[in-house]
Please model this.
Amino acid sequence: MEKATEELRAKGKAAREASRRLAYLSTEIKNQALHNIADDLLTKKDEILAANQKDCQEAKASGMDAAMLDRLMLDKSRLESIAQDVRTVAALPDPVGEVFDMRTLPNGLLIGRKRVPLGVIGTMYESRPNVTIDISVLCLKSGNAVVLRGGKEAINSNLALAGLVQAAIARAGMPEGAVQFVDNTDRSLVSHLLKMSDYIDLFIPRGGAELIIFVRENAAMPVVGAGVSVCHTYVDRSADVAKAVAITFNAKVQRPSVCNALDTLLIHTNIAQNCLPRIAAEWSKAGVEMHCDERALTILKADSTLKLVPATKKDWGKEFLALVAAVRVVDSLDEALEHIERYGSGADEAIVTEDYSAAMRFLNEVDAGCVYVNASTRFTDGGQFGLGAEVAISTQKMHARGPLGLRELTSYKWIVFGDGHVRP
Model:
């Protein structure tokens, strides 16, 4: 264990040293590094997919559930999408060096702020091997070094991807050590990693609630990230029924295993009789199991083809990550807002309505990182938001909420210009 700990600290030290050069590296070199990564993802796809297949086979044999297997799996289409996201990040403006809020004080000093990298980002994540690429490219473009620690279930995929990144950025002239991957899967090393505040400036965990809580309770450096993500869609009394059906279907079914998928449907009593059966019928085609309150059950019970379960208190505020949704009929927008306030997690909330006042109240009063009007919560994603990708999706109320992109991985320093100024 002592040797493994020394190796871990050596990776942290190397990342810290690399971060000093990354802080002022040219945009051209950073973009070339990212284009190299995108190219290699496609030219080395057979090698990557073979490593991923090995992980998937072992995970399936160990009894991993379908939702986690879906997060673990890579295929040609997903690799192409990841590569395109990398190119999108390369095309984005470089935030480092941006000068803003410049002004002249009454005493003649010219003062403002200049955007700078955070330094070294540490991250720990579960299952999703695409995170190895997403976090690496966002950190590199924003001038940060990164220390990556993936889950045991994706070790072969992550080794292949991290090696690809390291080789690709070296060809572009990036400093050695800019991307470090912890290949030792011993869980006891995690506690050591979380105490390396002398090397790591910010830690970003991605994974389940248990992982997030552990990191927050044990990290010696600042932590930003999401906890459990419970997403509501409220269908208001003035909703367009066709929009409501399409939005709720996409939010629940398009990819149910991810954190921005719908968990709870709230529907106004005035529209429920007409709209809820149509939503349920579409959900049923995809095999969605509906955990309904008493009023929703009364409306839907005549259709024997539906998968209906009486809702319990445990269904409210639950992140299902599967083809399961809680359903509640409410009497007003106020009741919907109260439900979201009580059971929401600060992640993604949506309203379907044709009433401008209701839409504005929802936007103003719902306390969440991403709030939608007449759109699916599935759009909460760095790529969909034009960020290229995201390091994580934050539900915290810090400087960054929702998808964390390039700008969220920077800080600033005050810059001051004088002309022989001295303080009186």
About this structure: The mean pLDDT is 94. The chain has two domains: 2-120+127-192+404-417, 232-379. The radius of gyration is 24 Å. The chain has 14 helices and 16 strands.
